[in-house]
């Protein structure tokens, strides 16, 4: 779905002139205020009888504008004095100052989005907005959830829910207050964080979700900002949340805690004596198939096993590719890094896995492995290497690290299969664990 603005920007000058000249004077003057024309797809509320709409996106993705325009759509009627669908709106943010400066008076806030004849009046003493048609929006701070015990609303806008100080209590009080009209609704605009209240809202059957990365709104952002943020945070767990707008969860009882993963970051690929490429093939192909995990891992194996160190160099995993395609990606990674061998799991594909890899390179050193234990059992010794501080990560491994945070002793609790983690486990098992089991201290020979 393309917005009218995207269509207009890509149209020929003749088409633009024809479109604009065909508008009446009233339609021409109203065009800047028709958000449906200018909006990006993730900024338009989904159809249906939902209770909560979560707009989850990266920094600068246009979440605030989406919230402000949704409030407009609820309170405004056909004419400036006509009633809209909602009459009593809650504006909830981290603090009163945050609500006022961002949601009300911000560059993408309610006042900036309102047409001159429908612009509300700010009543500072009462901390509320009053529209010409009598609709009222009340400011609420997440520091004071009890302030929601008296009022009642038919609409609400909750901004940056994931960083509210008393998030669960405030959200619960808001639900009790959201009880006017035939279908009271709330929009939540937030950058994702791994917090319980947001995860609970997302899992609620009455919730609908729109998602967008920062890149989706690049036309309204400084190119230097995008470049700098991608250079600093691209491929990291923080970048997945702050730029891609993806919720990165850490499961309870995860084999790799967030602290352990953070300690592994910032490694360097220096002094490596061996490099392997590990492949965990998907069971099927197509857009809905699991990923093919492809990890490049190196190690310095000098001295006794307790002195060995490893570094995860690259995550080249792909999704939705056929066997020949993922095999080509794996062999390309092998060649680029000058790897010593490739390790491939053959539980699902058997001889086919070896065959498709050999089609890319008939003489490539290939070790085929077969899983006889469950994923969690295989992963625990590898997680112990991280606990000992013996594995480091280069940049750009955010998606692998997200999967690691959802691998528990009871199994993987994320969506799909943890193919990136499986490949990591195969690589480190081959490089360090199996090798350590065979290692013997050199004997000093007496003459």
From TrEMBL:
Keywords annotated in UniProt: Viral release from host cell
InterPro entries in UniProt: P-loop_NTPase, Terminase_6C
Lineage top rank: taxon: Bacteria
Coiled-coil regions listed: none
Domain spans labelled Terminase large subunit gp17-like C-terminal: 278-429
Magnesium keyword on record: no
Listed Pfam families: Terminase_6C (PF17289), Terminase_6N (PF03237)
The keyword Transport is assigned to this record: no
The name this protein goes by in its record: Terminase family protein
